[in-house]
């Protein structure tokens, strides 16, 4: 019998992040304070109760999701949100068997590779009202939810920059070294620094911003608006 | 104390300069300098035997740390060094060798205006087991996190000596004692002046001094325990957002409180029980607090007298264990009793 | 209480909406300094270098500047564009009414008393003509009567001039004027303000201040903002009480803006204890004066990990009576109304802080006409 933490770790890996609608859903429930890393401590309505079928739980989750969407557009989950229902351990099975309003993330074309050169970012208006920022950091692509976990600022529209590292000197006060140029995005509001690749805060904390997968396809995916592509210039695809 | 007891250790010509009142001269309380319960004149509180009788025989204290007051600003740096040396000689020769010498401990008086001389004093007296900390004045020309003072803190930490920042009305610098201009009322000065210790504390934190000296303990002897948390929360938020400006600060500012101690003064104990409990809770549930009487001053703290605050609100370590933890050199006292 | 407005009709058709969030600290400015210097009389208006004097930089700033980076309009400084401000502050943040406090670049108090007085006049004229006038002034914004703290007679004249104008809800003085505000030299300002029922806001400004602290010069912004600046306001508060300003002027009310909140409870507790021992000269305990005479702005709300710790300090400070919500838009450490104050404080306290304390204190209305900023922005999410 797997324990809660294993199930949770497993689910996180599958989803790629632990934020998004699940956190949004929890916030609307009156009691209980939700902490991202302790979702198993969240209100019992979100867990399978012993003997209750997962489908019944999922059905009420759908209702609750719809409620949220109409009551506060700023928190509204987009069509791509995924819900995970975690069993506390007595219903055997893996989360994806009974988890998910949708288990596949929709895919979006961000643009041509040539339109997103290294050092640039494009905010894609999907997934949530503030969208998702897609970054090119030295040729690698990353995507972060455009919502700062601090107070909700438009994180991805902030400066893409480096950060400092302490340089300790022999007999004098410490100095700065400038490092990691281009790897950090700073929230335009309260200047919180985030590692673009991981979504984690640069300062020591457990906070991070949701990240999503970005790939490059040589051909446009089916059922998506057709782009003219060449062999040299693929499409940047976001799953969010 | 009587001035001649210190002047004895200062040679001419500096010996001619008056030392100034230990109770302040510009900001003078409109009440007797000495608390009514002390019941005696200068010959009482300057006399180690008399004080020892009050504290140890009648008061039930096991040990007491003596810190000499700053008195005046001394702009003459040679004079400042001379007074500092003389004070330490006097402490060693009088309090630490008095009838209760085993129970008294003292602070090594140093002046930041001459760092080399300060380090010499620390090195000289660190070997003497009666000295348990280094004392520096609250009012100086730069906050204590600045590099120019680092060697003093480093020397103290290397000998396992905490550094006490003490105000007590004196000054090591000629600066306006409050932020918005010269205070004209004693109560205004008295309420606000000790808060300047917060500037020192934040400077020490943001310059990475606690990171560079993990064995350093800072003792703020003039209170601030109650105002400290909300001030530091402000610094926490800014330090987090502006991490790039101080990458050498490894922890959150409030997390350095384990290297800080406060000696609450009488005004630091709010009359409201909930507020007092909050103060204790936010000072790491009392672990940051050290019991200090400020004997024999008018704002004496005597938790055994039955007045406010009630002693039972304080966790037991406040009365002794915190001090033993902060000053390992106090331990022989416990063993001797 | 959720900080939301009713959905008025998208084009602001004639009905009224409830006011739910009042923001007592925002900072608007003109597109350039000419908007102020053109309003100066001679000889100041033509004086060489006059614009440079108005744009003194503060000593302490974050390395990356003091403004919210997404609030900069094209072709003007941050805080100069009414439609961007309306979108970000009124629409996205959901603020109903905001009080403008003109400080910072272009509004620097000047060392020369006559010039400083002339500048204050120009600042107030500019507010009246723009943000309190054409720019939705009558329904969404209120202003502060900027006065020259180093020119007391002129300050009194300025207060008398604007006192009857309901768009100005308070008098504004900088955080540093050479002496603590309890000093008798400032009495005529308190007299004029309280005669007209106008509170006086103390807010940091750049120009007259001295930065040296009692223990030396602080190096950088995080330390100064965290510790140094609140100590100024603490001193003013203590001096106003200890010098008897509230006894001489029983109608005098003070707002301490952007200097924190939680730290004043313990400071006043210290003052209370000292008071009882030293035989204070006026009636009552210092803490007795707070409800009738003092308010604080909330931004930035402290962020300790433990909600319980913050709640204890808010209780100590009497937040439900003394605290008024502010965003500090468009500065970088702006507080978003949706997130700034935890729901765990409960609806009653949040309502008082977001709305009632300011509404009562400033005599503001309970409703306002709906306008174009009431339409909810369409969600950016597009489904494919």
Summary?
Chain B has 337 residues and is α/β, with parallel strands linked by helices. In chain B, 34% of the residues lie in helices and 8% in strands. Chain B has a six-stranded parallel β-sheet with strand order 1-2-3-4-5-6.
Keywords:
heterotrimer, B: 337 residues, six-stranded parallel β-sheet, 13 helices, 34% helix, C: 384 residues, alpha/beta, two-stranded antiparallel sheet, 38% helix, globular
Describe what you observe in this structure.
The complex is a heterotrimer of chains A (240), B (337) and C (384). Chain A has 240 residues and is α+β, with helices and mostly antiparallel strands. Helix content of chain A is 18%, strand content 24%. Chain A has four helices and nine strands. In chain A, strand 3 (132-137) and strand 4 (140-145) form a beta hairpin. The radius of gyration of chain A is 20 Å and the shape is globular. Chain A starts with a helix and ends with a strand. Chain B has a single domain (3-336), classed as Alpha-Beta Barrel (TIM Barrel). In chain B, 34% of the residues lie in helices and 8% in strands. Chain B contains 13 helices and six strands. In chain B, strand 1, helix 4 (77-93) and strand 2 form a beta-alpha-beta unit. In chain B, helix 4 runs parallel beside helix 5 (115-126) and helix 5 (115-126) packs parallel to helix 6 (150-158). The relative contact order of chain B is 0.12. Chain C has one domain: TIM Barrel (Alpha-Beta Barrel), CATH 3.20.20. Chain C has 15 helices and ten strands. Chain C has an eight-stranded parallel β-sheet with strand order 2-3-4-5-6-7-8-9. In chain C, helix 4 packs parallel to helix 6 and helix 6 runs parallel beside helix 7. The radius of gyration of chain C is 20 Å and the shape is globular. Chains B and C meet through helix 7, helix 8, helix 10 and helix 11 of B and helix 8, helix 10 and helix 12 of C.
Helix content of chain C: 25-40%
- State the end-to-end CA separation of chain A: 32 Å
**Radius of gyration from the alpha-carbon trace of chain A, in angstroms:** 20 Å
**How does CATH name the architecture of chain C?**
Alpha-Beta Barrel
SS content category of chain C: alpha/beta
Radius of gyration of chain C: 20 Å
Low-pLDDT regions of chain A: 1-103
**Structural class of the helix and strand makeup of chain A?**
alpha+beta
Specify the CATH class of chain C: Alpha Beta
